[in-house]
Amino acid sequence: MKEIKYIDLFSGIGGMHLGLKRAARISKKKVNCLFYSEIDKYCVKTYEKNFPGSINLGDITSINEQQTKKFKNKVDIITAGFPCQPFSFAGNKKAFKDKRGILFFDILRLIDQINPKIILLENVRHLLTIDKGKAIKKIILNLKKKYHVYGPETLCSKDFGIPQNRKRIFIIATKKKINYEFPIGSKKPTTVSSILEPISRTKKYIISKKLWKGHVERKKRNKKRGVGFGYGLVNEKSTYTNTLSARYYKDGGEILVQTKNLQRPRKLTPRECARLQGFPESFKIPVSDNQAYRQFGNSVTVEIIKKIFEKII
């Protein structure tokens, strides 16, 4: 197999696609993305800038059998980082009671129509405990009807050379039974300095006195309420940041960088967010800072996807 035929569901900006391409390159294989599915126009803009010529079939609920029948039994890999808000600690944790949660069943519908060899699913680790474990059990049982299932496995970005404490769960499903073990990463020490830009490029990201005061007060209030949300202050010597959030662009963010000779910290730059998810310097960011924060916060850590697929390919 010289070419890997691939479908990218809930693609976002293409973190899965990029990780797969990097893994395939090691074995000198080409990745042919047959189509991707994404509804956010800003994510589509970023995806197409970095993967020109890609075909977007849009809303997964609208993709029908007429569109997929030509791919039946011809697809090697399908990936899906399906919406995490119904399952996340930051969301409402309603799982399949949330309309975004039932989009998982559209993945199953397309899998049934296409019959791929391999599936990779990604989501937040809180999926494991939703409804006392019933949500993840339902996902696994549905996959096991036609596939051999490996996982769920929790992997953390900081174990893979990325200075971010980001834990996500991954599930592999294969038509053929294989002896698969998830990668454990190098677990080499990391530092935030590896993702920071020069001071000359970060001045405009220093937050105002008013916003900084609001961050401090909000964190105090949340601590009293027993809620963990709030900023995390880092510098170049910090070993890692906390989890990059998709809400970063709305409130100044949970990750703030200390500045020299100033009492006020700064936000990460979009490029720093890209690095914090393992995206290369060549990855183009054609959208506003606010959209970039949301996109990278919602994405996957590219290095983890690469390592997962290296072991399969």
* First-to-last CA distance: 10 Å
Question: What class, by secondary structure content?
Answer: alpha/beta
Question: Which blocks of ≥5 consecutive residues have pLDDT under 50?
Answer: 86-91
Characterize the biggest β-sheet.
Answer: 6 strands, mixed
Relative helix content: 25-40%
How many strands?
9
The topology string of helices and strands comes to: EHEHHEHEHEEHEHEEHHH
- Rg result: 20 Å
Count of discrete alpha- or pi-helical segments spanning 4 or more residues: 10
What value does the average pLDDT take?
90
Oligomer state of the chains in this structure: single chain
In short:
α1 crosses α10.
Task: Describe, in plain words, how this protein is organized in 3D.
Helix 4 (104-114) links the parallel strand 3 and strand 4 (118-124). The protein is globular. The chain is α/β, with parallel strands linked by helices and 313 residues long. Helix 1 (15-26) packs across helix 10. Mean pLDDT is 90; it is low at 86-91. It has helices at 15-26, 41-50, 65-68, 104-114, 134-144, 209-225, 248-251, 270-276, 289-298, 302-312, and strands at 3-9, 30-37, 77-80, 118-124, 148-156, 167-174, 232-234, 255-257, 266-267.
Kindly list the characteristics that best describe this protein.
313 residues; 10 helices; single chain; 6-stranded mixed β-sheet; 3-stranded mixed β-sheet; alpha/beta
